[in-house]
Amino acid sequence: MRSLYSYLLLYISMILLLFCTSTKGYSDLEVLLKLKSSMIGPKASGVDDWEFSSSPSAHCHFSGVKCNEDYRVVALNVSFAPLYGTISPEIGLLNKLVNLTISKVELTGNIPTEMRNLTSLKTFNISNNYFRGSFPGEILTGMTQLEILDAYNNNFTGLLPVELANLKHLKHLSFGGNYFTGEVPDKYSDIQSLEYLGLNANDLTGKIPASLGRLKNLKSLILGYFNAFHGGIPPEFGSLTQLKILDMASCNLTGEVPESLGNLKRLRTLLLQQNSLTGRIPSKLAGLTSLKDLDLSLNELTGEIPESFSALQNISMILLFKNKLHGSIPSYVGDLPQLAVLKLWENNFTGELPENLGRNGKLCNLDVSSNYLTGSIPLDLCKGGTLQALILMDNFFFGPLSEKLGNCKSLTKIRIKKNNLNGTIPAGIFNLPLLSFVELDDNFFAGELPPRMSGDSLEMLKISNNLISGEIPPAIGNLRSLQVLEIARNKLSGEIPEQIFEIKVLSKINIRNNNITGEIPPSISRCTSLTSIDFSQNSLSGEIPKGINKLVHLSNSMSPGTG
């Protein structure tokens, strides 16, 4: 009996201990229920299984909850469920928490200052919510073990908290996607453990601290988008030898690209687009031998593409569009083994495209429009069957299009208008399964359109102002997704095929200034999606079909044309 009595006393003591482990007399179970009450807003769903129970360990089985051997909550992960509420101050009673992740649940309100009691936290993730107000830096002073602080994509305002500069174990800091103002604290350079620093998409100003170059363990530095810094890229960033990602896009940078960035041998991504950077592209950037993605577009860079860039054997994306670059496109560009995306549009490039461009079998997006390029279009652009976008418009290319393009089943977009191309348009282009946009206007294409067309995805077909002859193929009616058909200013003859008006989504048709004869097909009245028709400057006869009044969306006047 004495032994049984001792066990009963021990059991009762354990129960009392479990339900009184938090301060203010709240058990962890009660704290979680208070949290649920505050986090659940109107029309919310989630944490439905958080219900009261007399079992001392019941809360340890709640969704997103983990406990230690004493049934204290050490991890709370509530994510991807729309809650719409707020965080109650009682969260500060979960003083054994190591991992707090409340992400993408649409919570709002302020961060409770009672969270300063969560001194065991290693992971603090409140990203993708609607928290507002200043971020209470004082809650961080006791979180000496914190490794991850992620407050990305909320509505925080005010200055960036400086208190976290004393967190000696912090590896990941993300305050991006908020409304923080003021300058980047110079003291952030004291967080020597930092591997990820994201301050992008805020309203930050001032100079970027050169002292951040002392963060020797930093692997990702993301500062761009909506910030408006003064000055340029600190040359000291060339000392961040562990850096893999440097993103300073669209943040008002001026000056030149520092040559010292060429020291970043591990850098994989360099994004400096949409700034006001000037000067030449440093040839020493060829030292970025691990680089995969390079974006210097939308700046004011001058000079030529450095010959030294032939050393960038891992690069897959080169974006230099909308600068003031000139010279030829180096021949080695076609030899880059991983190159998949090349966008050089709106510069002053001259000469020809490298003959071997595309032979690496990786090319998927080529855009060199609005330059002064000439010569023929390389034959092997789709050698690997990966080419999706071919955009060469507004140049001086000449010669025919290769029949190989008609076999490039990966193509989704062809835009080659305003060149000097000639020959027959490859018949296979009209049968490509994924092609949605064809723009070949303002060239010298001749011959006839093919009698067979079956491109199910083709939405826009623009081949105006060429020398195309023959009749309009009835097979155009097979292009069920076609919305815009522009074949004006050619040498087409014959009648308008009635099959065209069986395309239910066709909204615009322009065949003006050809040699079309006969009457307008009555079937046009069944094409009720039409908004624009231009049949003018042809030799059409007869009357306008009576059913034309069914075309209630038609906005342009229609002319049958005269001989």
Quick overview of this protein structure:
The chain has 563 residues and is mostly beta strands. It contains two helices and 39 strands.
How would you portray this structure in words?
This protein has 563 residues and is mainly beta. The strands form five sheets. The protein has a 21-stranded mixed sheet, with no helix packed on it. A seven-stranded parallel sheet has the order 19-21-23-25-27-29-31, with no helix packed on it. Strand 1 (65-67) and strand 2 form a beta hairpin. It is globular and about 95 Å long.
Q: Low-confidence runs (pLDDT<50, min 5 residues)? A: 1-23
What is the 3D form? globular
The average pLDDT value, as a whole number, equals 92
In whole angstroms, the N-to-C terminal distance is 119 Å
Please give the share of residues in helix. Answer: under 10%
What is the total tally of β strands?
39
How many strands, which pairing sense, and closed or not: the largest β-sheet? 21 strands, mixed
Radius of gyration: 33 Å
Total of DSSP H or I helical runs spanning 4+ residues: 2
SS strand fraction: 15-25%
Please state the structural category.
Answer: mainly beta
Secondary structure blueprint with pairings:
Layout: H1 2-18, H2 28-39, E1 65-67, E2 73-79, E3 99-103, E4 108-109, E5 123-125, E6 130-134, E7 148-150, E8 155-159, E9 172-174, E10 179-182, E11 196-198, E12 203-204, E13 220-222, E14 245-247, E15 254-256, E16 269-271, E17 276-278, E18 293-295, E19 302-303, E20 317-319, E21 324-328, E22 341-343, E23 348-352, E24 365-367, E25 372-375, E26 389-391, E27 396-399, E28 413-415, E29 420-424, E30 437-439, E31 444-446, E32 460-462, E33 469-471, E34 484-486, E35 491-494, E36 508-510, E37 515-518, E38 532-534, E39 539-540
Parallel strand pairs: 2-3, 3-5, 4-6, 5-7, 6-8, 7-9, 8-10, 9-11, 10-12, 11-13, 13-14, 14-16, 15-17, 16-18, 18-20, 19-21, 20-22, 21-23, 22-24, 23-25, 24-26, 25-27, 26-28, 27-29, 28-30, 29-31, 30-32, 32-34, 33-35, 34-36, 35-37, 36-38, 37-39
Antiparallel strand pairs: 1-2
